[in-house]
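Worked example 2:
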Amino acid sequence: MPVTARLSKRFYEALGEDVTNELVNWFNSVDATYRADLRELNETNFVRFDAKLGQRLAEFKAELQLEQRLAEVKAELQTQIVQGLADVETRLVRWLFTFWVPTAVGIVATAGGVVALLLRR
């Protein structure tokens, strides 16, 4: 809403009707020019702000997706580690059983043989 400049009666009396009206029109013209420049500057700044905001939102979204993906990879890795450890434990138990049962049988057989030899004499 433009505000029209008006000057007091003293200006009209001192400078005359034409000069004062010309001065008022010049003030109004300058005001309209500054308003238009300010509006254009504000629109330009808003466009830049909007673009920067869009860029930052896109970066934030990408970062958020990256964090979500990292969390998924971490969960997958933990699952694989747990499965791997269970696998190692199973193999270790199997190896221990495979190694110690024949060894124990051999020791018992040897002890039995020694006892049998000692009892023969």
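The chain has a mean pLDDT of 89. DSSP finds two helices and no strands in the chain.
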